[in-house]
Amino acid sequence: LARAALARVEALHLAAARLDRLSTGEARRVLIARALVHTPELMVLDEPTTGLDIVARHRFMEHVRNIARDSTTILLVTQHIDEIFPEVGRVILLKDGRITDDGRKARVLTGPGLAEAFGGPVRVTCEDDYYYARHAQSDGRRIVYQCAARLWIFEPALGESRALDLRVPSARAQ
To answer: CA-CA distance, 21 to 25, in Å (whole number)?
Structure first.
């Protein structure tokens, strides 16, 4: 069972390795495999990708996603909404230990909802049922996003956005 669990998270080659000699990502995969030996109905993962680079985060979360696909319930605590894989149906937002929203992913993972949870303006995009968020600056009337070579301004009252060239004197200028 242990070898099968290690293989499931692509860690079979680590079977004889000492845990204290493994990288952070390797150690996490081995610990997940150890839990899988017991065929859990539920796995609680509290910020499991802390300390991992972007590629290791993605690979680790793909292992978690596969575990969820195999009927193990995953309770994932994260500050990175891009870690919320497509199979996640319910999202609960917390702020200061209190629930600010609870429901279907598409309804909860919105700019206003995340802005309340994170305490500042947030822009949310969705691609292939993965959600992404980034901080947005606000001057009270509009939300200003800086993105590569363009500046995007979303006018909430109008429900539209427009792009400006970044050669403006400041991020708040028009």
So the answer is: 12
Statement: the pTM of the whole predicted model exceeds 0.70: yes
Tell me: the pLDDT tens digits for 51-98? 999 899 999 999 999 999 888 899 999 989 999 999 998 999 988 888
User: Exposed e or buried b for every residue in 125-163, given b needs 16+ CB within 10 A?
Assistant: eeeeeebebeebebeeebbbbeeeeebebbeeeeeeeee
Instruction: Return all residues near 93 (Cβ < 8 A) that are at least 6 apart.
Output: 99, 100, 101, 102, 108, 113, 114, 116, 117
* Helices within the chain (DSSP H only): 2-8, 24-36, 54-69, 105-108, 111-118
pLDDT digit string, tens, across residues 30-41: 999 999 999 999
